[in-house]
Each structure stands twice: as C-alpha cells, then as structure tokens.
Write a structure and sequence with these properties.
mainly alpha; 13 helices; 60% helix
C-alpha cells in the first residue's frame, strides 16, 4: 500500500500554461467607475491607487471595530480620552503614509451619489403576465383573495403573490399608463389582445 504522503503529493499539470496563468494573476483589475478609470495609474498597485484617490482599500483598516478589551478597560472619562489620543498617535506613528494626491476623485464620487436616481423601472413584463394583470384588475379591482380563487389563476398564486405581480405591473409606466388610457377609452379588451401579439 502506498504511503499517504506520496498519494496526496501535488503533481505537475502539463495542461496549464504557467506563463499565461502568471500574466492573468499579474493583470490589473478592470475599473468600471469612470472617475477612477481616468485617474488610475497602471504602474501602481491597487492599494496604492486607492490611497492616492483618498479611498479605502480595506474598510477594516479605515474604520476599525474596537475590541471588547479596549471598550471595557477605561473606567474614568479622563482615562478614556487619554487612551483615545494615545491610540490615534500610536496608529499614526506605526504607518506614516503620504497624503492622498487625487482627492478630487472622492469629491466627484460624492457629487455623483447625491444626484437623484430614476426610480421608474426600465424592464418590461412578458405579454402573458401583462394580460393576466389586466384581466385581474378589470374583473376584481383590489380584491386579491377573489383573484386567487379565479379559474385563470393557472399557477395557483397566493393573494400576496398576485398583489406583488400587480404592484410590479403598476410600477412600470409603459404598461400601467397604457392600461389606464385604454381603461378610460373602454378598450381594455384590445390591450389584452395586443399583449398577446407582442
């Protein structure tokens, strides 16, 4: 019987191109954020680039979680203030890093996050789901329990599931506005047939 060490020994894989594998590991990450992409220096590491832009590479270093020993130890307020000052000084002396040079990136990202987002849905529902929602709304209004007992509830959706589908339908302006217009003009049946054809 073979020795356990020789059995589990790592064998060389001839099917892997090590040069290609090394290049792939060495390759810089693809940056999707436009503000970061313009200021990215390919000669620096990811950590150095993030530091230059004033961003945190490791959130645990940026905002450390205090240990329970540190939290429980001080008894007086003066001691606590002294410890906080000492901790800050000791952290600063441990790692002397240069100040970030590209702080405008952080400002651009903050401005971008403050812009209002468009809450309207961009996707569309499938034609059978639209037809189902139109049929249920016309026949029952807001009575979801009756909708659940309807014979066209083929998938045996519960009242909550039907309510969720109808809320999604109402949240998509392309579908719901068309439904309201057709309801005003009395052409709901036409909308159902159009939903089937599209």
């Amino acid at each position: 019987m073979a020795n356990k060490r020789t059995r589990n020994r790592k064998k060389f894989n001839y099917n892997v191109n090590l040069r290609k594998k090394w290049r792939k590991m060495k390759k810089q990450p693809t940056v999707l954020c436009e503000q970061m992409k313009h200021n990215w220096d390919p000669k620096k590491t990811t950590k150095q680039n993030m530091h230059d832009m004033g961003l945190s590479y490791d959130p645990n270093e940026a905002v450390p979680i205090p240990k329970t020993k540190e939290v429980m130890k001080p008894k007086n307020l003066k001691d606590e203030e002294e410890m906080d000052v000492d901790n800050i000084r000791s952290r600063q002396t441990k790692k002397k890093k240069l100040d970030p040079t590209k702080l405008h990136v952080v400002q651009e990202l903050e401005d971008l996050s403050k812009l209002p987002t468009n809450p309207s849905r961009t996707f569309r529902l499938s034609a059978p789901v639209v037809q189902y929602c139109v049929y249920m709304l016309d026949k029952y209004g807001d009575d979801y329990k009756a909708m659940a007992r309807d014979k066209k509830n083929y998938y045996q959706d519960t009242p909550k599931q039907i309510r969720q589908k109808i809320n999604i339908f109402k949240g998509i302006p392309a579908h719901y506005n068309e439904y309201l217009k057709s309801k005003e003009s009395g052409k709901v049946e036409n909308m159902e047939t159009e939903a089937l054809t599209t």
